[in-house]
Amino acid sequence: MILKDKTVLVTGASRGIGAALAKGMAEAGADIVITDLEHEANAMAAVAGQVEAAGRRAMCIPIDVTNKARVEEVVAEATAEMGQIDVLVNNAGVLKLSRLDALDEATWDQHFDVNAKGIMLCTNAILPQMKERGTGRIVNIASLAGRQGIEQQGHYAATKATAITLTRVYAQELGNQGIYVNALCPGIIMTEMGQNNLQKQEDRDYWAGATALRRLGEPEDIVGPAVFFASDLSGFVTGQALNVCGGLYFH
Ligand SMILES: NC(=O)c1ccc[n+]([C@@H]2O[C@H](COP(=O)([O-])OP(=O)(O)OC[C@H]3O[C@@H](n4cnc5c(N)ncnc54)[C@H](O)[C@@H]3O)[C@@H](O)[C@H]2O)c1
């Protein structure tokens, strides 16, 4: 119960890693604000059921992390309802595969809007209350792709490198106000997004075999590291990006 009575807001929480984080952080004692795009309302409600089954409060609220006014509204509504937001998990993300030399401008813009600008908008909306209390935790879900560009994911990798850079700079700017900012860099996690380019069993076998642990990741594999960054367990850790990849990459 390391997150007992903390309130965590998770973006992109209707499925995949975000849903696992909502459930897992509730099991660690937190109340959860579940946010995602409006059309994911049913899926969000199902995640809320899992949070409540863990004995914690859940609130579902639609958001588009690229919309500044909406982000500010959501933070205000969630804060009014839950009292305060102690932890923000910037998890919402998109990935569409394309070679860089065939990439259309709209896809580039969408990736930067959601994966990079979304982090800045959500973080800036939540910071005033964290500054006022002199404490707060931000966990950004980046990617191994942001450490090492990956073919067909150049635009996505660039947004994730940006997420790592934002993590480092926010941490430097906010550390003296008691606000911690860290990032997780998942490897291949078997979600809708993770399976995107792993349709064939032989590809899954190849990538599982390339990890030191000889397996692909599950959304639940991200929970422990996220709880670590969301809690006092990481009391002397800020501005860091931790690979959560089963030993696929070592830098
Ligand atoms: N699955 C992997 O292998 C993997 C690896 C590295 C990093 N990641 C990162 O982990 C995070 C979660 O990914 P996932 O694998 O669970 O993917 P996913 O596609 O299953 O989930 C992404 C979620 O983000 C939401 N979302 C998309 N655009 C949004 C917007 N504008 N506003 C609010 N929500 C929005 C989606 O509705 C969805 O619920 C992403 O940031 C992703 O880049 C995933």
SSE blueprint:
Layout: E1 7-10, H1 16-27, E2 31-36, H2 41-53, E3 58-62, H3 68-82, E4 87-90, H4 105-133, E5 136-141, H5 154-174, E6 179-186, H6 201-210, H7 223-230, E7 241-244
Parallel strand pairs: 1-2, 1-4, 2-3, 4-5, 5-6, 6-7
Helix pairs in contact: 1-2, 1-7, 3-4, 4-5
Question: Which tags fit this structure?
Answer:
Rossmann fold; binds nicotinamide-adenine-dinucleotide
Note the main sheet. 7 strands, parallel
Helical segment count: 7
**CATH level 4 superfamily:** NAD(P)-binding Rossmann-like Domain
Kindly provide the name of the CATH class.
Alpha Beta
Work out the radius of gyration. 17 Å
Mean pLDDT: 98
According to CATH, the fold-level topology is Rossmann fold
| Principal-axis shape | globular
The domain tally reads 1
Going by helix content, strand content and strand pairing, the class is alpha/beta
Low-confidence stretches: none
Q: Using the 3D structure, state the CATH architecture.
A: 3-Layer(aba) Sandwich
Task: Give the distinct bound molecules.
Answer: nicotinamide-adenine-dinucleotide
- Going across the biggest sheet, name each strand in turn: 3-2-1-4-5-6-7
- Strand and helix order: EHEHEHEHEHEHHE
